[in-house]
Amino acid sequence: MESTESHYPEEGQFAPEFSFRTANGKPMNLSDYRGSKCVILYFYPKDFTPGCTTEAKEFSTDNEIFESKGITILGVSPDKTESHKEFKQRMNIPYELISDTDHKIASLYGSYGPKNYMGKEYLGVHRSTFLIGKDGRIIKVYHRVKPLGHSDQVMKEFGNSC
């Protein structure tokens, strides 16, 4: 298996379009935010795992600050909607979590592909984050995200440019 990192959309390109349903079942498109909000789009492997919980907690803590600056957060993982609902409730996550069970969204963003753990190769979600401007263009891409401190890292990079 080869790495998919070269297939990430690049800074300056338009963010690949996708559709999703909110926790309330409302159909949405990424482009619905264009012109009104900047978007933090982050991909994570699995609800309730230590790194993913850390990342979600940090973004949740900073959500009000991001929202006050016109920035919305969208988390994407291959978990089912039911898992997201429980994760949101137990972790008090105020932003949308998108179910991507078929990996279509993650694949659009080069965030799904070969991984290696203890010498075993498998397919999975690469932890990555895309900062998308109001014009729909990607402002910044983070590869191989470390969950601890990532929200603060994004705040410093994106907090004043939206």
Annotation keywords:
alpha/beta; 162 residues; five-stranded mixed beta sheet; Glutaredoxin; two-stranded antiparallel ribbon; globular; 4 helices
User: Could you tell me how far the N terminus lies from the C terminus, measured between alpha carbons in angstroms?
Assistant: 38 Å
The CATH architecture classification is 3-Layer(aba) Sandwich
Mean pLDDT across all residues, rounded?
Answer: 91
| Most strands sheet | 5 strands, mixed
Helix count equals: 4
Runs in which pLDDT lies below 50 for 5 or more consecutive residues are 1-6
Query: Which range does the strand content fall in?
Result: 25-35%
> If you compute it from the alpha carbons, what radius of gyration comes out, rounded to the nearest whole angstrom?
15 Å
What spatial form do the alpha-carbon principal axes imply? globular
What's the CATH first level?
Alpha Beta
Which structural class best describes the helix and strand composition?
alpha/beta
* Strand segment tally: 9
What is the CATH superfamily label? Glutaredoxin
Number of domains: 1
Question: What order do the strands of the largest sheet run in, or round the barrel if closed?
Answer: 5-4-3-8-9
- The CATH topology is Glutaredoxin
**What order do the helices and strands follow?**
EEEHEHEHEEEEH
What is the share of helical residues?
Answer: 25-40%
Structural summary, described in words:
By secondary structure, the chain is α/β, with parallel strands linked by helices. The protein has one domain: Glutaredoxin (3-Layer(aba) Sandwich). 27% of the residues lie in helices and 28% in strands. The chain contains 4 helices and 9 strands. The strands form 3 sheets. A 5-stranded mixed sheet has the order 5-4-3-8-9. Strands 1-2 form a two-stranded antiparallel ribbon. Strands 6-7 form a two-stranded antiparallel sheet. A hairpin with a 5-residue loop joins strand 1 and strand 2. The longest helix is centred in the middle third of the chain and has 19 residues. The radius of gyration is 15 Å and the shape is globular.
